[in-house]
Amino acid sequence: MPELMGLLEGALYAKEEHGLSAEDIKGALKAALAPVLPRLNKVLLIPPDFTRFHSNAGFITSALYHLLSPACQVDIMPALGTHVPVSQAQWQVMFEGIPYTNMLVHNWRTEVVAIGEVPADYVREISDGRVDTPITVEINKRLLDPAYDLILSIGQVVPHEVVGMANQSKNIFVGCGGSRVINASHMLGAVYGMERVMGRDRTPVRAVLDYASEHFIQDMPLQYILTVTDAPGGIIRTHGLFLGRDRRWFEEAVALAQQKNITHLDKSLKKVVVYLDEQEFGSTWLGNKAVYRTRMAIEDNGELIVLAPGVDKFGEDKTVDALIRKYGYQGIDRVLKMTEDNVDLRENLSAAAHLIHGSSEGRFNITYATKHLSQAEIEGVGYGYLPYEEAIKRYPIDTLKDGFNTLADGEEIYYISNPALGLWVVKGHLNN
User: Which of 3, 120, 285, 412 is deepest in the core (most CB within 10 A)?
Assistant: First the structure.
């Protein structure tokens, strides 16, 4: 392993409920970099994009840039996965003080190279026989540039619908991955069962990522910087900072995130109202975190209302958007049959997986309240529709608090102001 892997490793936990201070975080980063800083010439930072604004990775990236840039070249490539590039306005909010020209844009379809294959027999074993094909691992070709002395991947560990708990090597193999690994991993998670993976560390997709880490990038000068955060009232609180490539630091972050980002409810919920901040959620591809993260809390025949003022499309990618419009959100059996019968879905398995993820399997009703998508468009993909202005009068977000609320007419609802930051489950569900 390259000599410049010698950063200090460790974990920093907040002692107070309000989280680590800016000075705490900067101090930890400075101490970690000290052993290698004099020898660095070119560094690549891999933060999340704006959809993970509340990870506090933007602040950390800015702090790293200012620590590193006087002495070496610093490039920043957000781990977009299939998402659209960070806009200049978003960049200025998230990555304060870093020139927009320092951004490299990852293209998951055209800028990747294959680095290895996870064997079919291994995939069959970890998926309980549900998937029996090999998975080709592709990553952005820039990650293999020998000119980089150090690659720092920065991001939040939080419950996730595909991998179980987000980040660490997911930032590399999915966030900076190619279509084959993104398609295969999303479908693997979907057919194994979303409710079997969310909030857990040891999942089939995580096993694939661990395999790829061990076999394909062991010599890459890569280190991870992981956060565990929440954001009550939109104010980011960083409860833990974990630095290092050893899996133990990810496991410590997972344990903390399970404490901070999972809400265990005494009873299932009849009606859930979720707000999607229009700066963060512009598509149902992103906004359906409202569906994923609440599905283990909503009762049979219950209702999910999604207030989505910024959603103006279904997919982040034009091809995926067209597929969602064509096939709609349907249950696993129907989507698997459509995938078998239609080549366009077979060639875009991440889209097929998303159609499964976005369905309630007929168990509860999903209604989207939008400004920019019409009733015909929303109903065309299988959701109920509510005009946004009408919805916001009935569910006035300025007066709602996270958790249980009683409306003026006596109806009880459960309100969530940001579904990306957590997972809501009925007590005991994760033990099943």
Answer: 285
